Amino acid sequence: ASVSIIGGYEDQVEIKTHLEKMNGYGLTISSLAQFIGAENLNAPGGQVQKGAQELTIRTTGEFKSVNEIKDLLIPLPGGGQIRLKDIADVGIGHKDITAIAKANGERSVAIAIQKQSGTNTVKVADEVHETLAAFAKEYPDLKFNTVMDQSVDIKQSIKTVQNEAILGGILAIVVVFLFFHNIRTTFITATAIPIAMMATFAVLYFTGITINMMTLGGLTLAMGRLVDDNIVALENIHRHRKEGYSRVEAAIKGVSEIGMAVFASTLTTVAVFLPIVFVEGMVATIFRELAMTFAISLLASLVVSLTLVPTLSALLLKAESVPEGRTGVKGAIDRLSHGFDRIFERVELTYRKFLHYALHHRKTVMVIATLVFLLSGVSALKLGAEFMPVADIGQLTINTTLPDGAKLQDTEAAVLEIEEKLEEIPEIETVFSQIGSRGGFSLGGNTSNISSISVQLIDLDDRTRSVEQVGDEIRSLTKDIPGAEIKVEITDNMQMGGAAAPIDIAIKGEELDQLKQIGMDIQEVISSVEGTREVKTSMTEGVPEVVVSVNRSNAAQYGLSAAQISQAVKGTISGTTATRYRYEGTEIDVVLSGDDTFKTSLTNLGQTPIHTPSGITVPLSQVAEVELGRGPVMIERTGQTRVVHVTSQIMDRDLMSVTTDIETKLNGYPMPNGYTYEVVGENEELMESFADLGLALVLAILLVYMILASQFESLLHPFTIILSLPMGFSGGMLGLFVTRTTLSVPAFIGLILLVGIAVSNTIVLVDYIIKRRERGEAREEAIENAGPIRLRPILMTTLSTALALMPMALGIGEGSETMAPMAIVVIFGLTFSTFSTLLLVPVIYTIFEDIRESRKRKREMKRSKQTLNHSV
Fold it and tell me: What is the pLDDT of residue 494?
């Protein structure tokens, strides 16, 4: 989109006039500039006939060399001519340096490249590197160093998520092999993973979605669930095969028995992401692709479990027991299989006892479940909240601001002092400084007092401290640099693109002085809250400047206008660009300027000569007053009301708790009439996102209930399944509390995902209980038979999902912190909901059955009474 150059020199032709001589000859910088511009000219002159030819006329007067400019004859107002070199010094120089770039302490030229909106960062960066490599071959004497490349962090983050997905898939397959301890059954189950991934990538390709952290994150979340449907189908086929059915019979009977349950469990998991379509803002932008990827993967897995799994089972599945006496690797696998089977038999026996106890002590089970739920509620109150977790990509920025009006050399000296202190930090790899600029884009006005230092740390694997800890050390090392206001910001890919400050208080009113005072008071209040740092107000004093106030009456006596005085001052001090000169293959400015003496002080500035129409010269002080002042203050308006912002960063505390403390203190602040404040910034995004996600959570639960009601053709049984969710939520909240993780948008997405995942096992169990009862078994008998039979697939699906998400939850690798809260919520929530499925759901099922039978008896008794009364 744009390329900006910072630092280095820019050539120009400098014509430094001798004002005494100019005045003596009656010349001004303005008239001299006009004459030089008119002399440097190539222009078409029409056409002329030469025989049968028609030739173009071109008048050439363009300067060929600097000497030609020096020898240029200047006509004098009084007649005669004089050469330019007699009244000015002419030569090649460079423009005044307004910005300096340094890479690891060395002066350099920085090229800041900004991509177009909507284009792929990685692709653009790769093409830039290819072009740079070709350019480097043409200029082997130049040293090129990429000091900041967003694509590197994106690639690293994607690689981290990719590794998590691969490792998660491997762990899920290991779980399958551990339970089935058979290569054939493991192969059949694992077919879901590559097929689902191929289907997902195909859909992503045709919808134009790129491979990024969100799409890979969706695949990682789905990785454990991809084999769940296959596990349930295959385990049921395997059980029928052991009961003596043929391969084909076992495949048909096994899949038909659990087909609707598997379909419903997958549909509920996919359906929970549908409400995210209605979510707006950044949450929708970030997580819509994740939801799409997750849903596509699961639907592909469902198709595999209902078609390919029974087909492969009919061809490959054997019902053989583990043989005895084999040696080598097979013998080791056999011993592992026998050992695992013995352990699982004990687990199954123990579960039978607990299930029997739970069915006969329903009040005790309900009380324990209620206590666990209340405990998790208390722990949830202790959780902090933030919008998005900060990912450690090893980048931070040190922004420095010196007092207004500071020279570029003073700012460079402060930066040099900071760079020397940074040498003490071993984790730093590169340091890139921009003095007089921040980010390569013009800020407008004089920026000589600002600078930006971009710091890149070594890889996360090679350092023991986080970027936050390094940032705190930098703050400590640089806090005593005199006159410099220093702000250290951690760079986060998820926060890029103009994200708001964590704390931002917007104060609204009309009077600037009153707004400034309120801003300073609130700044002091925020500074007193623990966890805040770098508290600033947007109201400034205005930049110091020299004001030249024209004395109109004096100027009129000399026939001067304000425009003429302004042009004369600008020409003498800043210089006037007369024309462009071709120099070494490019065009450079030809600049006329006055004597540098007039720039050295306000007194000398007042002596700047102003040429009058009558031909005499007067000093600037004769027609204007020169004095110090301040430039206008930047005024921000929102809804046609003036606004001042007080912003703050946070440290060692979460966003919500800091915001709550600030609001508590501000409640006691007496706001004048007509002035208001509101908390905006990242906290506003947090509240809006949580409100949207809360609505999505409620809609997800309603959707799941409707799907279950249609499957079971009952309004009561879905409640049995839905009531397993509170335990899942309890587990998710306890997981965040135990791991000291704050509640964030990814964690909330994890809660929504739990709605679909937690009910999957419950559906399989309740569906099988109903089927056994339809065969004529009593209620308790059906439950105590169905529970142990469904124990193996339930544990397999839980373990495969939890282990597949474990690498993501551990947050190992650069950029992995963003998705970790989601995985933590799902793992802990799924674990708790599994216990709920195995013990609490059967109890709730019997309670609802008792209610249903009680209502049925009452209806029958009422019907009997009505029949008896009718007979009488």
Answer: 54
pLDDT tens digits, one per residue of 770-792: 888 888 888 888 888 888 888 88
Instruction: Please state, in angstroms and as integers, the Cα–Cα distance from residue 208 to each residue in 205, 299, 695, following that order.
Output: 5, 20, 29
Specify the pairing of strand 100-103 against strand 428-435: antiparallel
Q: Which residues pair with 490 in a beta bridge?
A: 396
Cβ atoms within 10 Å, residue 78: 8
pLDDT value of position 828:
92
250/315 Cα distance (integer angstroms): 11
CA 718 to chain centre: 38
In the predicted structure, residue 182 carries a pLDDT above the cut 80: no
Pairing of strands 586-593, 395-401: unpaired
d(CA 772, CA 770): 5
pLDDT of residue 127: 92
What are all long-range contacts of 413-422, with beta carbons under 8 Å and residues at least 24 apart? Answer: 414/451, 414/481, 414/483, 414/484, 415/102, 415/451, 415/453, 417/481, 418/453, 418/478, 418/481, 418/486, 419/102, 419/105, 419/453, 421/474, 421/477, 421/478, 422/453, 422/455, 422/474, 422/477
Residue among 831, 833, 811 at smallest CA distance from 821: 811
Position 436 scores a pLDDT of 83
Structure tokens at 510: 């009309």
- 455 contact partners, CB below 8 Å, separation of at least 6: 395, 396, 397, 398, 422, 428, 430, 431, 432, 474
Listed residue (587, 607, 589) closest to 597, CA to CA: 607
In the prediction, which pLDDT does 321 show? 54
Helix (H, G, I), strand (E, B) or coil at 13: strand
For helices 745-774 and 820-835, the axis angle rounded to 10 degrees is 30
Amino acid at the residue 256: S
The pLDDT tens digits for 646-703 are 888 887 788 888 888 888 888 888 888 888 888 887 777 788 888 888 888 888 888 8
pLDDT digits (tens, 9 = 90+) for 199-252: 888 888 888 777 777 777 777 777 767 777 777 788 788 778 877 788 888 888
R_g of the chain computed on alpha carbons: 39
pTM of the model: 0.74
- Residue type for 653, please? R
Is there a contact between 298 and 222 (Cβ–Cβ < 8 Å)?
Answer: yes
Distance CA 37, CA 29 (A): 12
Q: State how far Cα 175 lies from the chain centre.
A: 34
Q: Give the CA distances from residue 83 to residues 25, 30, 536, 581, in Å, rounded to whole numbers and listed in that order.
A: 12, 17, 57, 19
- Pairwise CA distance, residues 764 & 851, whole Å: 23
- Please spell the DSSP secondary structure of 687-718, one letter per residue: HHHHHHHHHHHHHHHHHHHHHHHHHHT-SSHH
Distance separating alpha carbons of residues 662 and 677, to the nearest angstrom: 12
Name the residue with tokens 């000093």.
619
